[in-house]
């Protein structure tokens, strides 16, 4: 009986594993065709000045509309794209579309709008990355100062190779932001050596900022540090007025989150831009 049960468990386990592997393979096959099949779409989420209430920029966030599965969240396919190397063509597609869109909005008079684009570390490590960014900027006509690249702490794992790439991007006028700050390899020494413009406080610290005294302390510390280092600081995942007012009390520069807007399609962002040009929080 025990043997039988064991056998059943074993079969269940392999079935489960097969299922998972099949799913992954399906995703991979789908991913390979997704660009040419126009299944990707960039959504844009506003970033807002905490005290001015004005929109300072938008973050481009990819969405995959799978023909059978429906909407697949980025956390379910970005890791696979990185593993397979598909992130490279995908990443350039993202950069090009985001730059084209930003250029359109700038041409409409939203001159200072900053377009933030997430860059995977695998893409950042490509030898031709800087040249590719340069090409995309000149092809789309987007001024370098309007582009910000969001890098994660995993990129800076190898500071020897990351630093010169960052410096070349800075020399071009592109802005650099450290995303998910506080969740990674928390060596603070790179804050000193890397030519960053922005620190982005990870949403996991914002979530319970009004309940957890430790989270509040961490956020305050990051904001103060950003001030001392003359960096722009932005909080992500802001969902409530209470979170926003605590960020305001501590002089956080900008915020991003459902409180103001979820990530939306380009035409919806267009409306937000027109209606909230001078949106005020107070
Ligand atoms: P991220 O760059 O840290 O992006 C912030 C995530 O928080 C986004 O999830 C966004 O939709 C979500 N978010 C924004 N406001 C709120 C809020 O108020 N509450 C909560 N709970 N969440 C909020 P999303 O779009 O699912 O993306 C997840 C991650 O996938 C991103 O984290 C980024 O690491 C990656 N990703 C997304 N788009 C791209 C892309 O175009 N390229 C690359 N390389 N990675 C991307
Ligand atoms: Mg990001
Ligand atoms: Mg982030
Ligand atoms: Mg994050």
From TrEMBL:
This is Signaling protein YkoW. Residues 24-277 form the EAL domain. It comes from Rummeliibacillus stabekisii.
């Amino acid at each position: 009986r025990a043997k039988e049960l064991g056998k059943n468990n074993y079969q269940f386990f392999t079935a489960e594993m097969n299922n998972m592997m099949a799913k992954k393979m399906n995703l991979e096959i789908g991913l390979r065709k997704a660009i040419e099949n126009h299944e990707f779409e960039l959504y844009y989420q506003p970033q807002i000045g905490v005290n001015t209430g004005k929109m300072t920029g938008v973050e481009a966030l990819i969405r995959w509309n799978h023909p059978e599965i429906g909407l697949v969240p980025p956390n379910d396919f970005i890791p696979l794209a990185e593993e397979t190397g598909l992130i490279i063509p995908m990443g350039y597609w993202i950069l090009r579309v985001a730059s084209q869109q930003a250029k359109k909005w700038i041409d409409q008079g939203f001159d200072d709008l900053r377009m933030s684009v997430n860059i995977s570390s695998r893409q950042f490590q490509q030898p031709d990355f800087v040249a590719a960014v340069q090409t995309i900027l000149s092809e789309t006509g987007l001024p370098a100062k309007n582009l910000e690249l969001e890098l994660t702490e995993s990129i800076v794992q190898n500071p020897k190779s990351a630093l010169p790439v960052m410096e070349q991007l800075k020399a071009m006028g592109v802005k650099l932001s450290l995303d998910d700050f506080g969740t990674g390899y928390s060596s603070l020494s790179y804050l000193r050596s890397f030519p960053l413009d922005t620190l982005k406080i990870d949403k996991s610290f914002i979530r319970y900022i009004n309940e957890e005294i430790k989270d509040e302390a961490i956020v305050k510390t990051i904001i103060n540090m950003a001030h001392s280092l003359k960096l722009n600081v932005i909080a992500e995942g802001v969902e409530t007025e209470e979170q926003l007012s605590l960020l305001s009390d501590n002089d956080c520069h900008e915020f991003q989150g459902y409180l103001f807007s979820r990530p939306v399609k380009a035409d919806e962002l267009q409306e937000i831009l027109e209606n909230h040009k001078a949106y005020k929080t107070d």
